[in-house]
Amino acid sequence: MRPLRRVPSLIAPLTVNSFIKCIDCHNNKQGRGAGGAGLNGQDGSIYTPILEHNLALVDYRTESAAEYALCYKCHDRNNILSNVGIRHHSLQIRAQQIACTTCHDPHGFAGKPLSTCFKMRVTLQMSYPV
Questions:
Q1: pLDDT value at residue 17
Q2: Are 31 and 39 within 8 A, CB to CB?
Q3: How far apart are CA 53 and CA 67, in angstroms?
Q4: Whole-angstrom Cα distance, residue 34 to residue 58?
């Protein structure tokens, strides 16, 4: 896999070199990380698996700001749905209802930034030319 040079959907001040901590996602909406006055941490999170915001973890869910709120905390929704960095992104997310987590591993892997590890899905059927 070639190194990630740019991700047009990232919301400033995030860059491809930003370090994302566990608590940036695994938190609760009342915590300081989410703009609340409560304690940071996953205790009290209402979103599985102990997330700060909702995240659809399975395919065939209707795309919305609420369904992928965790992704849209760092990625500009309009940018993603207008196919600015990935061809057919909107088709995959809206029409085919493929979840972000189907293709992107939010935990990344050693030596690679968050969400750059594309999962291999041999069962995924694309209905457009690649």
A1: 81
A2: yes
A3: 9
A4: 24
Residue with tokens 């590890």: 117
Nearest to 8 by CA among 69, 87, 62, 106: 87
What's the mean pLDDT in 7-27?
86
Distances in Å between the Cα of 10 and the Cα atoms of 17, 22, 37, 44, 114 are 11, 18, 26, 28, 12
Question: What pLDDT score was predicted for residue 108?
Answer: 66
Task: List Cβ neighbours of 121 (8 Å cut-off, separation of 6 or more).
Answer: 102, 103
**How buried is 40 (Cβ within 10 angstroms: 0-12 exposed, 13-18 middle, 19+ buried)?**
middle
Structure tokens at 110: 């050693």
Residue 110 or 77, more confident? 77
> Strand ranges (DSSP E) for the chain?
104-105, 117-118
Measured between alpha carbons, how far is 103 from 75 in angstroms, rounded to an integer?
A: 15
DSSP state of 22: H
Beta bridge pairs of residue 104: 118
Q: Per residue in 49-89, pLDDT tens?
A: 888 899 999 999 999 999 999 999 999 999 999 988 777 88
